Each structure stands twice: as C-alpha cells, then as structure tokens.
Amino acid sequence: MTTETIIERTGDKPAKISFGRLWDTWGVTAILILLLLCTPAIAPGFLEVENLQSVLRESAYVGIVAVGMTFAIASGAFDLSVGGQLALTSVVSLMAFSGGGTAAAIAAAIVTGLLCGLVNAGLITRLRVPPFVATLGSLFVFRGIAYLLTQDGPKTLPYSQIHSPFVKLGSLNIAGLPLPFIIMVAVFAGGWILLRRTAIGRRTLAYGSSPSAARFCGISDTRIRLFVFGLVGLTVGIAALTYITRVWTADGSAQDGFELKVIAAVVLGGTALKGGKGTLVGTFSAVFLVSVLNEVLVSRGVESAYQRIVLGCVLIVALTIDGLRTRFAGPGSFRRAITGLIPRKTTQATS
C-alpha cells in the first residue's frame, strides 16, 4: 500500500493531522490486520493455508466488481443492479458453455455484463432517469430475466466437465495462489492505471467532484456515464466467470444482496459517497475485510439471517466513516475537534 503523508508542516508551525488522510492510509488495513490477529481465538484453524486460499477465491468476484463500483461512486453515482447483472450473466454463460464450450462461455459472460452496463447507461443518459432509480429498477429486471431463463431449473455445470479449462478458472492454483485472486489483482492493477494515469480516469474524478464545473470544462455527461456503467458491466462479466466456476450453478436468486457487499467494500475503502475521490488501494483492503468477516461468521456456523445483520451494520459503519472523513478532511481538523472538547479556562478581570 502506498503510504500517504498524514502530517502536514508549514514552516515552523506544529504538525496538523488530517483524520481523512489518517483513515485512508491506515484505517481499513489496520482493522483487517486486527481481525486476522483475532481469528485464531474466534475461529481456530482459520489461518490454515487451505482456508486462506478459500478466502482469496471467495473474495475475487466481489473485488473485481468493486473496481467498477469504485469508478461509479467516484463519479457521483451508484449501480445497485450488480447483483442482478451477476445472476443473469452467470446463467447466460452456463447456457453458452453447454452449447459452445469454454470460449463461448467466456465471450457470453463478457458481452452480457457489458450490455447490462450499457443498458443502465442508456436509461440514465437517454431517458434521464436518476442512476439510483435506473439501477434499482434494472436490478429487478435482470434478476427477472434470469428467473425466466431458469424456469426448468438452475443452470449447472455437469460433473463430467471437472477437468475442462472453463472449470479451472475457478479451481486452479498458480504458485499457491488461486487463479480467481490473480485475475482480481490484474483487474485492480488495470483499474488503478485507468483511474490515475489516463484522461478518462481524471475526468471521472473531476465529474464526481463537480458535475457543473466539469461540464463547463467540456467534459461530457454522456461519455462519463457510458464509461462508468459500461466498466461496471464489464467487471461483472469477468467476476461472473470466477463465480460460476466455483459454485457450478446459477439462477435468478444467485448472490442476493451482492450489491451491498460491493458498495460496503468500496465506501469502507475510502471512496467518497459524494464523488470526486476514489481509492482502489483502499477498496482492495476493504474487500478482504468484508470477505474475512463473512468467512469467520460462516466458520462459526452463524445463520444467514445474522450474517445479513452484520453486513448491514458494516454498511452503516461505512456510511458513518464516510461522513466523519468528510467532516475531518481538512488539515488540522482532527486536532481542532479534540481541542474543542476541552473546556477553556476563563479568567476574571480584577479590579
């Protein structure tokens, strides 16, 4: 993780600590390390190699979509339809595999995910539907289509295909690392370059910071929306490949609530809900925090209902942290807040 300077000095003035920078630099990573240190007591055997490989494999599809969601939230929008996109893309990919093999399944997943993203972009740019409403509606549409395609039962991979190249996308290990995790790292690396080293990445952040100012500078609303939601769809297509080759089955109910996991990871990672700021490094750490927490709950036999409660609490905490980070973003703001809590001594005038 790239270390940012959290103490600013101006001449001989004392150091000023920015809570926002402090959290962005160390917050999520520190909590993740603390959680990992506590897991032997909470869930004995959790840190075994096979279990850690399972965590890396499980976190891959969440992390891949979180890359696209980071761009969306940094631009000032949400995509609440990623769960429906994942279900539909997974079903279509399995259907394509049964008819055309590995190449057809991969192409179907990528194309379907990209088309889902472009549908959202069209609703927002052409019909002027707010992103929140458009993606909430398309969430149900995509899941509904997936249900229609699986009326005769969930689509599955036959056990006879256990050694096929397609199945190995989710099961293969390279140098001890699961292939889905390696794919996720590659997507994060590409996303970081796109966000920090290209014009479209800088324009996305500029648009999220101030849409009106961005438009004044010649940045197109339509192009930003097409890019952002198309990218989300593309990442869903890639994630679906790592997901279905791990679970081997898909229908309209696949990964219900998936969008909450992704949004929680992105916001926890430091991407500002109001837009204009995105950090893929923070998102990367937050994805593992959410995944480790989920795996710990599963290993302890916690019921799915309570797992949802915990996930909801994590999302609330993420939103609270985002508000605090915004409040204490300026240099010295944290010190001023602490100073304000200490009552000042008053002196009485003497006659």
From TrEMBL:
It is a multi-pass membrane protein. Keywords: Cell membrane, Membrane, Transmembrane, Transmembrane helix. Pfam families: BPD_transp_2. InterPro entries: ABC_transp_permease. It is found in: Cell membrane. This is Ribose ABC transporter permease. The keyword S-adenosyl-L-methionine does not apply. Signal peptide: none annotated. One of its GO terms (cellular component) is plasma membrane. Coiled coil: none annotated. The chain crosses the membrane at residues 26-47, 59-78, 90-119, 131-150, 170-195, 224-245, 280-299. GO terms for molecular function: transmembrane transporter activity.
